Amino acid sequence: MELIKETLSDLRHKNRLRILEIIKRSEPTSRAYIAKLLNMSRSNVSEIVQILIEEGLITEEGVGDSTSQGGRRPTQLKFAPNSKYALGIDIGGSKTIAVVTNLRGECIARTKFASHPAGDGSALQHIRETVAKFLDESEISVDKIVATGVGIPTIANYETGDVKFAPGLSEGDVNIRNLFLTELPEPVYVDNDVNMAVIGERWIGNATGCKDVAFVAVGTGVGAGLIVNGKVLRGMSGMAGEIGYFHMDPFVDKPDTQLATYGVLESTASGRAIEQQIQYYKPKFPDSKLEDGMGMAEIFEQARDNDPLSLYLIDKMTKSIAFSISHLVLILNPERVLLGGGVAQVGESFVGPIRDRVQSLVPMKIAVERGQLGEDAAAYGAAAMALLETENLVLD
Q1: Is 178 in the same domain as 286?
Q2: pLDDT value of residue 4
Q3: Residue 395's pLDDT band (cuts 50, 70, 90)
Q4: End position of a domain, from candidates 25, 44, 79
Q5: Would you give the distance in Å from CA 177 to the centre of its chain?
Q6: Structural domain for 75, as ranges
Q7: Could you tell me if 250 and 353 lie in one domain?
Q8: Would 226 be classed as within a structural domain?
Q9: What separation in angstroms does the CA of 21 have from each of 24, 53, 104, 381?
Q10: Is the pLDDT of residue 3 over 80?
Q11: Does residue 261 lie within any of the structural domains?
Q12: Do 66 and 102 fall within a single domain?
């Protein structure tokens, strides 16, 4: 009997979300339209609609046209996107971005700041206090924020909020959920930043409507966020998508400890790795204008002037990234692959060669595009997770 109760409860939650999503997409609409579309009784629809009205998620506004048979004109239902907010935080090694969004993913407030305090002190504590101050100064009613989502650039336990290793942010194990609960709106949900980014792109970015998508972030490191059949793929230990450990040539002995620590792909084709290779390759390209210490933006800028070393490094990088993506495509068969992270922001000069090379390596047609949300992808994804987990959002 208990199992039946749980099943009915799950069905009720599902119908609530389905009705909310229909109103959001088809507003203004009526109870009769929803009942017909979902093949539900009008009484059941009316009961759920009343709950949504009481929660403030929808409103009754005006009346619609009567049917050809006449009768009472239906009361129109509209979505109330500003009835609730979500807080999304993307913690990076150097910068943190926080956004407050409404139920449509529209930005209500945003801030960006250095992840580390000016003096000594805990980076995570600094981030928590800075976001709390941001909320206070933005004069947003914290009572309207239903939850907080946090993306962090390391492997996180999605169930507990535990983080075993956060390089540059924490010296040891830390529970992000418990740490942030003290000053930020609860509940708090924690996940890897690239997982958050793919959720963000699926919510309001370049993957809306996609049930199978891969988001590959290339910046200081390399990682992938994967959605399979509408669900984030995390794997047994939360390490699904750690493509930075892909071996480009597993039969070559690589004793370098950096490769063992960060993974072969990340240690050879990330933005940081390419920047570090300037000094090594410069003697082979004496005419190059690249200098040790230059960043990826300068490398791409010099490539536009046909700088030989710049062209070589970009070619080397995009080949490795494309080779790795081709394996993701063959295994997961996603609808599209999105490129994000700091390096992808240079645009088509990075995305184009990868797209062409991936297509040449796989037998099926695959869309490879740049993510739409740029550096805000993970912050918006964290806000989306906050709404998803509190049953204020559904992503079909």
Answers
A1: no
A2: 45
A3: confident
A4: 79
A5: 18
A6: 2-79
A7: yes
A8: yes
A9: 5, 14, 11, 18
A10: no
A11: yes
A12: no
Q: Where are the alpha helices (DSSP H) in 83-188?
A: 123-138, 176-181
Q: Which amino acid is residue 239, in one-letter code? A: M
Tokens 């082979």 belong to residue:
284
Can you read off the two tokens belonging to residue 191? 């996940």
The string of pLDDT tens digits covering residues 77-121 is 999 999 999 999 999 988 999 999 999 999 999 999 999 887 677
Contacts 24+ apart (CB under 8 A), 261-266: 262/221, 263/222, 265/222, 265/320, 265/321, 265/324, 266/221, 266/222
- Unique residue bearing structure tokens 């996609």: 210
Q: Are 29 and 142 part of one and the same domain?
A: no
Tens-place pLDDT, residues 124-157:
999 999 999 999 999 898 999 999 999 999 889 9
312 and 233 both lie in a single domain? yes
**Is pLDDT larger for residue 1 or for residue 51?**
51
Question: How far apart (Å, rounded) are the C-alpha atoms in residues 348 and 366?
Answer: 16
Q: What's the 3-state SS for 46-78?
A: HHHHHHHHHCCCEEEEEECCCECCECCCCEEEE
Residues 6+ apart with CB under 8 A from 209: 396
